[in-house]
Amino acid sequence: MKGITRRDFLKGTFSLGLVTALPYSRVRGANDRINVGLVGCGGRGVGAHIPSFEKQEGVTIVALSDPDQQRMAEAAKIIESKYDHKVGQYVDMRKLLDRKDIDVIANATQNYWHGLSTIWASQAGKHVYVEKPLSHYIWEGRQMVNAARKYNRIVQCGTQRRSQSSIAKAIQWIQEGNLGKIRYITAFANKQRSSCGKRNSPLPIPDSIDYDLWCGPARKVPIYRDKLQYDCSFDWNTGDGESCNQGVHEVDVARWCLGEKMLPRRVMSIGGRFVFDDACDVPNAQIIYYDFPKAPVFYEVHNLTKAKGSDEMPEFRGERVGVIVDCEGGSVSLYRGLARDNEGKEVKKFSGDGDHFVNFIEAVRNGRREDLKAEVLEGHISTAITHTGNISLRLGLEASRKEMRTQVRDIPIFRDMLKRMLEHLKAQEINVNAGTVSLGPWLEIDRQNECFKDNEQANRLVRGFYREPYVVPDLSA
To answer: What integer pLDDT is reported at residue 4 of this predicted model?
Structure first.
């Protein structure tokens, strides 16, 4: 073994599938340089990961990977011009993972690639910062947790609200009982989205893109929307819709406030895709009921403007995106950092920020996953919750206004949310009595096993679909 470094040994064992758990502190000294490999060179990778890692002392991005060679080359030019060093470029991330000098993977791939790429990185002995939503399927997220544990990796999920100190202070204040018990939490995202288009012929894929690698675990099918990249978030094959893509932030904060560590007891969702006759299929108006033991969480998505021809977006209590906690003695807007009593009088403000990327690097240096603000298990649970709501909607049937009201009649807050959605659709000149809205079933959840009770169709969506050879391994043993 003379002359062979510990990292050489790890890489050799990885190639044989023999990596074992080793103490974090032995992997990297607190003062050593950390080399980062960025996987995924889109807007989040270039706009957030590159500056957030490069600004930290002793941290350098040394390699990039993306199936889109043009996008990767542009990212490399940005690094060279702004940070005065070159980077390696790899179309296939597996070649980047083979590099022995890379310690950390910055995972800014699209949703459907998060699971397999994070597991590959963990198997290769790398620590991982992976963007939200953590997974594309519930079962997949659990395998990501299993991989982090099996290979003893530090894995941070990009739900960066966890590092915002104003929210942490507000949640602590609520949990101390300053406004009494939590009655319910309303989370919401009113973010305008445009149509993804609908082509008559498949979108041409440039020679600069390895389309097989781009598809990865997802079905390799012709694309009929106008853009290949970001709009893939709004196609069930490769994305998870707004209630997961954005909603994981709000659901994560709500769950954090409740102190919940598991999925809800049951879930139900209503919604659909309206106005746009396009090639995408996720909802752009959706409401979800998450039934937790302590208090329910209600979530609503509105991607359409207030009314047909309007440029304004809907709001909830004066906010477009947020989380509002209603308690016995008042309410708290967690994103605004503002608490009010039941008469609407301001009683407390909360301020403070934080840096999620800095927190990750500090945990890597310290060798302590417990220092992470959004450790992979936290990211998994919050993402899995959002998947349950989407599964209910995907199993739904077109329903009349009366059928929808009947299903939610015993839940006053959800009745109000349904009313807001129906009024919004009416303002968009959608006839909700014409069978245009999907009414999802109530789904009972096996919280311990992270699946549904007595529903084979729903559990098929829990387990997910993969394309050979890009199959997420079962690491539950």
So the answer is: 41
According to DSSP, the residues that pair with 438 across neighbouring strands are 271, 398
Share of the chain above pLDDT 70, in %: 94
First CA to last CA across the chain, in angstroms?
Answer: 31
- Reading phi first (left if > 0) and then psi (alpha if -120 to 50, else beta), residue 345 is in beta
What is the DSSP secondary-structure string of 6-53?
HHHHHHHHHHTT------HHHHS-TTS-EEEEEE--SHHIIIIIHHHH
- The conformation of residue 441, written as its DSSP 8-state character, comes to P
pLDDT for 299-351, tens place per residue?
999 999 999 999 999 999 999 999 999 999 999 999 999 999 999 999 999 99
Report, in angstroms and rounded to the nearest whole number, the Rg of the chain calculated over CA atoms. 23
Say yes or no to pLDDT of 23 above 50: no
CB 245 within 8 Å of CB 233: yes
**Pair 268, 444: CB distance under 8 Å:** no
| Alpha-carbon span 241 to 280, nearest angstrom | 10
DSSP codes, 140-166: HHHHHHHHHHHTT--EEES-GGGG-HH
How many angstroms separate the CA atoms of 122 and 148, rounded? 6
Q: What token pair was written down for 278?
A: 């396009």
pLDDT digits (tens, 9 = 90+) for 73-95: 999 999 999 999 999 999 999 99
The closest alpha carbon to 33, from 50, 51, 58, 55, belongs to: 58
Phi/psi of residue 61, each to 5°? -85, 115
C-beta neighbour count of 294 within 10 angstroms: 12
Residues 167, 24: Cα–Cα separation, whole Å: 29
Exposure on the CB side of residue 404, measured as CA atoms within 13 A: 30
Is the Cβ–Cβ distance between 333 and 170 less than 8 Å? no
439 contacts 111 by C-beta, under 8 angstroms:
no
* CATH number, domain 166-199+241-353+388-463: 3.30.360.10
Amino acid identity, position 449 = N
Q: What CA–CA distance (Å, rounded) separates 60 from 35? A: 5
Query: What does the DSSP assignment read for 217-266?
Result: TS------SS-SSGGGGGSTTT---HHHHTHHHHHHHHHHHHT--S--SE
Domain boundaries, the chain: 166-199+241-353+388-463
- Can you tell me the distance from the alpha carbon of 301 to that of 316, in angstroms, rounded to the nearest whole number? 11
Give the Cα separation of 394 and 389 in Å (integer): 9
CA atoms within 13 A on the CB side of 303: 22
**Cα gap 168→175, rounded to integer Å:** 11
Q: What is the pTM of this model?
A: 0.93
β-bridge pairing 321-327 and 330-333: antiparallel
